Amino acid sequence: MWLAALVTNDPHATPPADAETFDLIIVGSGSGNAIPEYQADWNIAMVERGTFGGTCLNVGCIPSKMFVLPADHILDAHHSERVNIDVEFHSADFPAIRDRVFGRIDAISAGGRDYRAIEQENITLIEGTARFIGDKVFHVDVPGGPDRTITAPKVLLAAGARPVIPPIPGLNETGFHTSDTIMRLDALPRRLGIIGGGFIAVEMGHVFSALGSEVSMVNRSKGLLRGFDEEVARRFEEVFRDRPNLNLITGDIPERIRRLGDGTIEISCAGGTTVVDELLVATGRRPNSDLLDVQAGGLHLRDDETIVADDTMATTVEGVWALGDIANAYQLKHLANAEAKVAFWNLAHPDEEPRRVSYRAVPSAVFSNPQVATVGLTEEEARAQGRDVIVGS
Fold first, then answer.
1. What's the average model confidence in pLDDT over 366-391?
2. 212/73 Cα distance (integer angstroms)
3. Pairing relation of β-strands 214-219 and 24-27?
4. Which of 87, 214, 328, 333 lies in the 20 to 30 Å Cα band around 285?
């Protein structure tokens, strides 16, 4: 009977007898951690497979901007002659910068975890990987065990995204860093290779080249920041390319990666070979919908593997809501926070008019140098929609 329910996703099926039952299951402790006070009496399970606090706090927006600040000061020194002063940059203490950043962030993450797991009696924090095995039923793989089966009449999916790893021959065998690990290096590399040309690539390219690494960036597109306004992206690249310690290779794809006998890494492209000491892969991020096996829970996916959810954050399955990187392609923390407010309200107030999120003018920024900000449609998107456009510059 239960096996049939797993196949058909029967909403009236009875969960397995050993399933723990909650009022609400939240998968993800980033924006999904923003539980409002009006749910203080709910019996809530929160499942987190990684570090408590999610991407933005631990490996994304916050630590990267804390690295950007000293990098900006260094570039200011390089350009001080523009304002008729003589300032010299001598060196950067990378381990001290790293320890200052994560000495603060790790404490915030640990404090948030203890607050949810220990101080809040209505929260059950389960550290493991959840996957659907039926309608609003999860199996959670808990490292060290025992595994758990949990269910609830309401589910909020906020499980985020993870780095995309391109199928470059030799990459996995060679070893590499992603945005999850690059900021925790033991020492500043003399030479850093970066594969990619999006916002993570240009932010880390700014940071490491300013701090003193010789940075070689390889991007398959002919320009950087694909998807941004073309004129803005073009001007950004002109300025970004003309900076110390940066070799920018565009319109080329790594054909092979291999580690040499001395421990260095060789990046072979059609246009030539580059040797570096560390390698960062920054080729985008993909939603974690596959790890959750969301289709086993009856949910629908878009072509980019994000979960289909409307502007109330409701999915195609009654009682299931989704938000953040697992449900939209923006990958912006402030948007996920806005979605969380809407989702929590709607799931707790089913008899009231649902609140909605507007995606009409979502702002975003790239904290490289120069900085880039955008809101709403680009000129190209507006023209593609047949709109009359006036451009000022």
1. 96
2. 13
3. unpaired
4. 214
